[in-house]
């Protein structure tokens, strides 16, 4: 196996074009090293950790920019993320062990494109964009179209994710991420649900509701019908019940060693209800009637 | 592809030549003979291989050695100074923080990284911080007790001496002598 430590994005991109399908990008390596052990070793490993300026969290013109090499731990401990993007913060603190969070990068979590990846549904509901670098230039790709299937993304084999651009939600909006796994944070999610709710000015209705579903489809999903059902309404127990049931129909889970498809739909229903209750209460100060 | 590496482990520089795919865990144990760091699951799940890299706790089984150049690596071997155990090592002995011992270097490095950052954590904070370090033997209470003993300054520098005294006292009891006699008969 050949091993490279490019010092710039340009150098990394030329290594990726030169080595083609043989090449593999490595950031934190928490996915790549396990793959090397159980699957196969790539012909060339391109370690991007030495490229300066790819890590860090900055606020810029109504957005938070998070560099691809920023670790999950740095996101979890960022006061800025906790305040402005609680749904992402909530996901990062339920992400594996400290050892893994200290090593794993957000860029790796995204480019791995696993439907259960913890940061993915928060990025979908935040309507964030991936900033991608290719040898012929840079482009911004919304996460809505970025994920193409398990392990497949718009970054492809020749692109690099450099940054994530996340519009900061309106001040009153609240978000939660709920993870269901056998051993809590330590385990891969059986189902993950991200909910973001923005109240109207009088805090009487949900002006905007966004729901992201993880580990229940080939990519992380939004639940557009459920969101439309809730938009502009005051959340009541009956409405939340209906929303949970509808969200379960919007998921398209499979049966695997972690859970049956049927069980996953039940969990989507329960977590959606719970997420709506929590965000409604946090955003309006009212219990669900 | 072989790679020449300069690794700084416990404040000492080592020149090594290793294959580019070697893990930090393998280089520590097999090349540098620092076998204190243990291998459990090999896939980042158990914490046995935990070391501190530039102040952060990581699993050395998921870490490429080649990526560690220019970083400070701390392992269990670096804890005792001038023949004196680190307070955490001392506490694990006094409070029975281990049985088989395979998880122990990882547990102690995890606890050290916490105390380096926050010398006065609560029990809850210790549990949360160390939840990536599995132990099949102790049931965790003794580990928690050992770490909290350091936090609360309850380790005893005269522990070994006291222990010898207690052993002698037990051995002088008639009941001990009669049991010892029956079992040797
Ligand atoms: C014990 C354990 C527990 C885990 N628990 C969780 C969990 O609870 N939740 C969760 O979501 N994940 C979990 N994971 C998976 C993994 O830690 C995450 O997916 C992590 O975020 C990957 O980041 P990394 O930097 O380590 O990626 P790497 O392993 O370095 O890379 C991952 C993939 O992304 C590509 N890549 C990385 N960076 C870039 C970039 N900038 N541009 C283009 N491609 C790139 C790589 O080529 C590779 O295909 C766990 C892993 C382990 C070993
Ligand atoms: S051996 Fe590294 S975490 Fe288990
Ligand atoms: S002491 Fe045996 S595994 Fe912890």
Task: Describe the 3D structure.
The complex is a heterodimer of chains A (289) and B (185). With 289 residues, chain A is an alpha+beta fold. Chain A has two domains: 2-48 and 57-167, Uridine Diphospho-n-acetylenolpyruvylglucosamine Reductase, domain 3, CATH 3.30.465.10; 174-284, Enolase-like, domain 1, CATH 3.30.390.50. Chain A has helices spanning 9-19, 32-38, 72-76, 79-84, 86-92, 98-103, 106-112, 120-125, 143-146, 224-230, 237-250, 261-284; strands spanning 2-4, 23-26, 44-47, 57-60, 63-67, 129-134, 137-142, 147-149, 152-153, 160-167, 174-180, 191-199, 206-214, 221-222. In chain A, a hairpin with a 2-residue loop joins strand 6 and strand 7 (137-142). In chain A, helix 10 runs antiparallel to helix 11 and helix 11 (237-250) packs across helix 12 (261-284). In chain B, strands 2-1-5-3-4 form a five-stranded mixed β-sheet, with helices on both faces. In chain B, strand 1 (2-9) and strand 2 (12-19) form a beta hairpin. By secondary structure, chain B is α+β, with helices and mostly antiparallel strands. Chain B has two domains: 1-78, Ubiquitin-like (UB roll) (Roll); 79-179, DNA polymerase, domain 1 (Orthogonal Bundle), CATH 1.10.150.120. Chain B is built from seven helices and five strands. Helices cover 39% and strands 15% of the residues of chain B. The chains are: A alpha+beta (289), B alpha+beta (185). The interface between A and B is medium-sized, with 25 and 27 residues. Flavin-adenine dinucleotide sits between chains A (24-32, 34, 48, 68, 95-96, 100, 103-105, 107-109, 111-112, 117-118, 155, 160-161, 188) and B (43-45).
